[in-house]
Amino acid sequence: MRASHGLRVLSVYEGFFSGGARIVHSDVVRGLAEGGQSHQVLSIHGEVLREATRQRMEDDHCYRELTAAGIGVTSLGRSAGLVDGALAANAFSGPELAETARAMAGADVILSLKEQPLALLNQAGLPRRPVVVALHRSDPENQGPALDELKAAIADGTVAACVCCAESTRAAYEAAGIPAGLLHVIPNGVDLLRFRPDPAARLALRTSLRIADRAPVVVFAARYAAMKNVPLLLRAARVWLAREGGGHLVMCGAGMTPGNPGLRADLADAFADAPALADRVRLLGVRHDMPAVYAAADVVALTSVSGEAAPLCLIEGMMCGAVPVTTDVGDSAAIVTGLGFVTPPDPAAIALTWSAAVAGRADLAPDLEAARERFSRTRMIAAYAALLDRLHAEAAPAPSLPDPL
């Protein structure tokens, strides 16, 4: 479906670094561009140090997919987490503001990936454009000054809408004081052509990791962050690996590498009494072949304690045939109802449920197949397109009437 008016949209990112929100938003941008809209992306940071990983914009998979699709991506060139003498996060130089103004002037609508870029968009003197803020968390109070920036932008009249990826997001931001009329829920979706059961990819990845075809495999796809509760995951893995003699835990994402001292300490603590079991924990770091990783899994696990809204790992894993097992955070329970399992944050309970999920995987396969359309990327992008079209139409000035004769 092509947009008749050639809507021009600028997305503003805090930076390009590993995480589900950037994957979803970049996919939305590509989908909207495929539908006829004109899209550009401005990133505040050109590189960041997060999760013990230095991440350059040009190396990022989302950046490469956007530019390969012909979408222009520029950066203010800042570095986050690195010692470079940069300005404070909420202070911007004249050249930075001039570059931002040029990018905004060429757009009809601004998309802010989460509320953090509003520190830039709220600067005085920038062109006035309707701003749509894409919200991907369920803990606005834990976002530092970003919630205040969002409220300031709303009070200033520049925020036309907030897109919430989950009902838990909508409820949390409304409770935090964001007007309900601005909050629109568009659930996350994925490319069903990419994320699907794939026996050949399953076998190939297992072979590359020297994991037997019938060995039970749990995948944990997440960045190394406190909200993900990696210590809980590893304590559960200690119990599960002792029970499942041939089982393996595969961990991937930013910081999921032996070079991360925090993760090394977590592993040492969890497996202190049985270090040999840790040999069946595979640390893969950031991967760009996630459909294959999920296809190789029997279970996709999540042990988060806060912040989650509609975790992309659960959706992607399910669409590839892995059974989701998650703690009850954000919309996770609603996403996996009838398709997987919800556990309390208890290592023994999680380990037991992983085993139940492996055993019940074949029985759940028909339900996972029947649920695919619910998680469609096409549905998500169509909803974004409809919202942006409506907001642009509402912001456009009414045509003037001809002078009477």
Description:
With 405 residues, the chain is of the alpha/beta class. It folds into two domains: 8-189 and 376-393, Glycogen Phosphorylase B (Rossmann fold); 199-373, Glycogen Phosphorylase B (Rossmann fold, 3-Layer(aba) Sandwich). 38% of the residues lie in helices and 19% in strands. Strands 1, 2, 3, 4, 5, 6, 7 and 8 form an eight-stranded mixed β-sheet that branches. Strands 11-10-9-12-13-14 form a six-stranded parallel β-sheet, with helices on both faces. Strand 1, helix 1 (20-34) and strand 2 (38-50) form a beta-alpha-beta unit. The radius of gyration is 22 Å and the shape is globular. The model has no long low-confidence stretch (mean pLDDT 94). It holds the Pfam family Glyco_trans_1_4. Residues 19-192 form the Glycosyltransferase subfamily 4-like N-terminal domain. This is D-inositol 3-phosphate glycosyltransferase.
Summarize the structure.
This protein has helices spanning 20-34, 61-68, 94-105, 118-121, 146-155, 167-175, 199-208, 230-243, 261-270, 290-295, 312-319, 332-336, 347-359, 361-370, 377-395; strands at residues 8-13, 38-50, 53-56, 72-80, 109-113, 131-135, 159-164, 183-185, 217-221, 248-252, 281-285, 299-302, 323-327, 341-343. It is α/β, with parallel strands linked by helices and 405 residues long.
Low-confidence stretches: none
CATH fold-level name of the largest domain:
Rossmann fold
What sequence of helices (H) and strands (E) makes up the elements? EHEEHEHEHEHEHEHEHEHEHEHEHEHHH
Give the terminus-to-terminus CA distance: 41 Å
Q: Average pLDDT across residues?
A: 94
Q: In the CATH classification, which architecture of the largest domain applies?
A: 3-Layer(aba) Sandwich
Helical fraction: 25-40%
Tell me the number of structural domains: 2
Distinct helical segment count: 15
State the name of the first-level CATH class of the largest domain: Alpha Beta
